[in-house]
Specification:
54 residues, two-stranded parallel sheet, rod-shaped
Length: 54
């Protein structure tokens, strides 16, 4: 039986899922993926702006 789990990939969550269901397919949930993407884009935008302004 295939089990799929969508979680925040914080290591304690991932470790728990791996311990409880070792054959599960783990997928990052879209909310946390997009949160990280937006964070990185904002960080790069600020870095670029600072470089242009100086």
């Amino acid at each position: 039986m295939l089990v799929e789990v969508s979680i925040d990939l914080w290591s304690p969550y991932k470790s728990l899922v791996e311990d409880l269901t070792p054959n599960a397919k783990i997928t990052a949930d879209s909310f946390h993926v997009m949160k990280q993407v937006n964070y990185e884009l904002d960080r790069m935008r600020k870095t670029e702006k600072k470089a242009v302004m100086s």
